[in-house]
Automatic annotation (TrEMBL), chain A:
Pathway: Pyrimidine metabolism; UMP biosynthesis via de novo pathway; (S)-dihydroorotate from bicarbonate: step 2/3. Carbamoyl phosphate binds at R55, T56, R105, H135, Q138, G271, P272. InterPro entries: Asp/Orn_carbamoyltranf_P-bd (IPR006132), Asp/Orn_carbamoylTrfase (IPR006130), Asp/Orn_carbamoylTrfase_sf (IPR036901), Asp_carbamoyltransf (IPR002082), Asp_carbamoyltransf_Asp/Orn-bd (IPR006131). This is Aspartate carbamoyltransferase. Heterododecamer (2C3:3R2) of six catalytic PyrB chains organized as two trimers (C3), and six regulatory PyrI chains organized as three dimers (R2). PANTHER family: ASPARTATE CARBAMOYLTRANSFERASE (PTHR45753:SF6), ORNITHINE CARBAMOYLTRANSFERASE, MITOCHONDRIAL (PTHR45753). Catalyzes the condensation of carbamoyl phosphate and aspartate to form carbamoyl aspartate and inorganic phosphate, the committed step in the de novo pyrimidine nucleotide biosynthesis pathway. The gene is pyrB. Its EC number is 2.1.3.2. It comes from Streptomyces avidinii.
UniProtKB/TrEMBL annotation, chain B:
It catalyses: (S)-dihydroorotate + H2O = N-carbamoyl-L-aspartate + H(+). Its cofactor is Zn(2+). This is Dihydroorotase. Residues 45-233 form the Dihydroorotase catalytic domain. Zn(2+) 2 binds at D150, H177, H230. GO terms for molecular function: dihydroorotase activity. It is an enzyme of class 3 (hydrolase). PROSITE patterns: DIHYDROOROTASE_2 (PS00483). Its EC number is 3.5.2.3. It comes from Streptomyces avidinii. Catalyzes the reversible cyclization of carbamoyl aspartate to dihydroorotate.
Length: 330, 428
């Protein structure tokens, strides 16, 4: 039984399918008049956010509350963290307050791993995004969305994404969403292609279980899902690309490009979208775009993760040491 | 001062001989020397080396006495078999004036555990803009001959050129911390497969190699000598090898940790492995060992960089860069170079004593173990095997990457001008 969810690479295929199946059960709760389960009553979930992310925070908050957990939101802004309190001291404080799970968002890659392995706290740790490393629950909710759309809500139960062709487009270099998705989608049997200008692909990507292409137009007709990553306009100042316009022209998804995708293919976006940059309004507002659905699915998926880590009796989320993890992924 | 007879030690790893110390000097080296009036140290099976010399130590004083002082740092040095260390200039205030280098020099004199030779900053405040008063530091009581902005690269090509030229007037040398600053903005670890996976900012090999290439060409152009600090990549080795073949007056150092550890350790996100330049790949490690063996890299220097616990017990990005190294250097060299057959003990003496003293123009260290020479000596029990326990360190800091690791060899005695600073593995 794993105690933490730090990296999507820690999940086996069966772990991941169990989380997705559990998330489907949780989604049904949302259809009830009273959207609440008593499962985590009396347990405390702390949302420890060192980095602003209202969307992810409220998603975790809603998930924990629907499971009847007590929720404490701890934001770096306006707390002692901004006065130089260390991660360690913050962790010890939360432990003393009796946190059963800590959902951590941190600007430093590896901070959740340190929190889970340093012996500072006993609680379960859920990585809600660390630096440019990973964002495993985002990958899970993305996989959940893909399975629903591409395989089917009921037909998908117990199934993975075997053979589906997933294209991830944009700032892979700085994206924790891309890293987690590559691991998880590979585990679930999908074929992943990353598309980006060479400046936004990390050195060392050749060992990742995916393909890399510099041409969006070549890949679109062979995609079952196209995930557009947010591209920060500021990247242009560091010469990752010449101008916003050029980026949009080469790597943005507009109506014409969307028309090149197979009819069943979906467009995904982890949000928040830069309309006019990586995605046009026409695409963002089309039926094929699942951005809003992803938000709803995020709550169900995070409920599943919290449930399996804190209350679930079946082995779900296991902990493999980092070293083993990487050997497997090579 | 009394006489000391070291009996039966393998001098530089060679034949067992007796070495008689009288006062501050080696009186005699030979077989069956008379022990009359001397304290005898039975050293059968042990290796006797010239006192080790570290060209690259951070003693932190003045300014960061919470991590190390000249006293604690020199105690650590003696424990590790060193009789002289060069103290880097990145203190607070920076050692960029005669006043600061003289302060460090005086603190070294007072410590008594090993000689401290201050390094002067190349530029004021290590800012790379204006040359420090290099001549004044050289003419001070500290007699500075090595200049370095270590921690920062002298990245402006004109400033570097001028520094290389200027110190020729008094036989000085510039020791370059080769790191192109723009290529390493936000750098957290070696750029490659592991950084891609871990999502940590990359420190590409080319950022080191491009500066080394530039600086050896500058040294050639102005006819100066240049020293390269903590060389860490296979590509850097090739450039230095090329430069030496071309006759360029370049010397280079490698740290013990770059001879043993790789970037794979960063997967733990344990900041004890965070260091600058970063741990590289297995391929780099093997190239560095080979280069140290064939003389392309001249010396081992520790880059001993003490940091308080709280600066390491945190998330990776917030942690300080650096590792302590004085007390484990010789053991790491024994494991990576001697036990692999790449170097014999005479080779170790060359790279950890003779050559660093020569590069730093330190006349009374790095001398042969023979009659009439200063009695700066290190006795090593090479058969010892032990697990590194930082609780036993003399250094004020504990940020060693070797905690819990078994390493060979132990310094049993260190002599500084005939006076034992370490006896039976303990500070005297």
């Amino acid at each position: 039984m794993k105690r933490h969810l730090i990296s999507a690479a820690d999940l086996t295929r069966d772990d991941a399918v169990l989380i997705l199946d559990t998330a489907e059960e949780m989604a049904r709760v949302a259809d009830r008049p009273i959207k609440k389960l008593p499962t985590l009553r009396g347990l405390t979930v702390v949302n420890l956010f060192f980095e602003d992310s209202t969307r992810t925070r409220i998603s975790f908050e809603a998930a924990a509350k629907r499971l009847s957990a007590d929720v404490i939101n701890f934001s770096a802004k306006g707390s002692s963290v901004s006065k130089g309190e260390s991660l360690k001291d913050t962790a010890l404080t939360l432990e003393a307050m009796g946190a059963d799970a800590v959902v951590i968002r941190h600007h430093a890659s590896g901070a959740p791993y340190r929190l889970a392995t340093s012996g500072w706290i006993d609680s379960a740790v859920v990585n809600a995004g660390d630096g440019t490393h990973e964002h495993p629950t985002q990958a899970l909710l993305d996989a959940f969305t893909m399975r629903r759309r591409l395989v089917g809500r009921d037909a998908g139960l117990g199934k993975d994404l075997n053979g589906r062709r997933i294209t991830i487009v944009g700032d892979v270099l700085h994206s924790r969403v891309a890293r987690s998705n590559v691991h998880l989608l590979h585990t679930l049997g999908a074929q992943v292609t990353l598309v980006a200008p060479p400046t936004l692909v990390p050195i060392g990507v050749e060992t990742w279980p995916c393909e890399v292409s510099y041409s969006l137009d070549d890949v679109l007709p062979k995609s079952d899902a196209v995930m557009m990553l947010r591209v920060q306009r500021e990247r242009m100042n560091a010469a990752f690309f010449p101008t916003e316009r050029e980026y949009s022209r080469r790597y943005g998804l507009d109506g014409d490009r969307m028309a090149k995708m197979p009819e069943h293919a979906i467009v995904m976006h982890p949000g928040p979208m830069n309309r006019g940059m990586e995605i046009t309004a026409q695409v963002a507002d089309s039926d094929r775009c699942t951005a809003v659905e992803q938000v709803a699915n995020g709550v169900s998926t995070r409920m599943a993760v919290l449930y399996l880590l804190l209350g679930g009796s079946e082995p779900a989320v296991t902990t493999t040491p980092a070293a083993t993890r990487t050997e497997e992924s090579k | 001062m009394s006489k000391i007879l070291i009996r039966g030690a393998k001098v530089l790893g060679g034949e067992a001989q007796d070495v008689l110390i009288d006062g501050e000097t080696i009186a005699e080296v030979g077989r069956n020397l008379s022990a009359e009036g001397a304290t005898v140290i039975e050293a059968e099976g042990q290796v006797l080396l010239p006192g080790l010399v570290d060209l690259h130590t951070h003693l932190r004083e003045p300014g960061r006495e919470d991590s190390e002082t000249v006293l604690t740092g020199t105690r650590a040095a003696a424990s590790g078999g060193y009789t002289a260390v060069f103290a880097m200039a990145n203190t607070f205030p920076v050692a960029d004036t005669a006043g600061v280098v003289e302060q460090v020099w005086r603190l070294g004199k007072e410590s008594g555990y090993c000689d401290v030779q201050p390094i002067g900053a190349v530029t004021v405040g290590l800012e790379g803009k204006q040359l420090s008063e290099l001549g004044a530091m050289h003419e001070s009581a500290a007699r500075v001959t090595v200049f370095s902005d270590d921690g920062k690269c002298v990245d402006d090509a004109v400033i570097m050129r001028r520094a290389l030229e200027y110190v020729k007037a008094f036989g000085g040398v510039v020791a370059q911390h080769a790191q192109e600053p723009r290529l390493t903005e936000g750098a957290q670890m070696n750029e490659g497969i592991v950084s891609a996976e871990l999502g940590l900012g990359g420190w590409p090999a080319v950022a080191e190699e491009s500066i080394i290439a530039r600086d050896v060409l500058l040294a050639e152009h102005v006819g100066s000598r240049v020293h390269i600090c903590h060389l860490s990549t296979a590509g850097s080795v090739e450039i230095v090898r090329w430069a030496k073949a071309r006759g360029i007056d370049v010397t280079a150092e490698v740290t013990p940790h770059h001879l043993l550890l790789t970037e794979e350790l960063v997967r733990s996100y344990n900041a004890v492995y965070k260091v600058n330049p970063p741990l590289r790949t297995e391929r780099d490690v093997l190239a560095l060992r080979e280069a140290l063996a064939d003389g392309t890299i001249d010396i081992v220097a520790t880059d001993h960089a003490p940091h308080p616990h709280e600066d390491k017990d945190c998330e990776w990005a917030a942690a300080a860069m650096g590792m302590v190294g004085l007390e484990t250097a010789l053991s790491v060299v024994q494991q990576t170079m001697v036990e692999t057959g790449l170097l014999d003990w005479a080779g170790v003496a060359e790279r950890m004593s003779f050559a660093p003293a020569r590069i730093g123009s330190l006349d009374n260290h790095g001398r042969p173990v023979s009659a009439g020479e200063p009695a700066n000596l290190t006795l090593v029990d090479t058969s010892y095997r032990g697990v590194v326990d930082p609780a036993h360190f003399a250094s004020r800091s504990r940020n060693t990457p070797y905690e819990g690791r078994e390493l060979p060899g132990r310094v049993t005695h260190t002599f500084l001008r005939g006076r034992a600073t370490v006896v039976d593995g303990k500070l005297a």
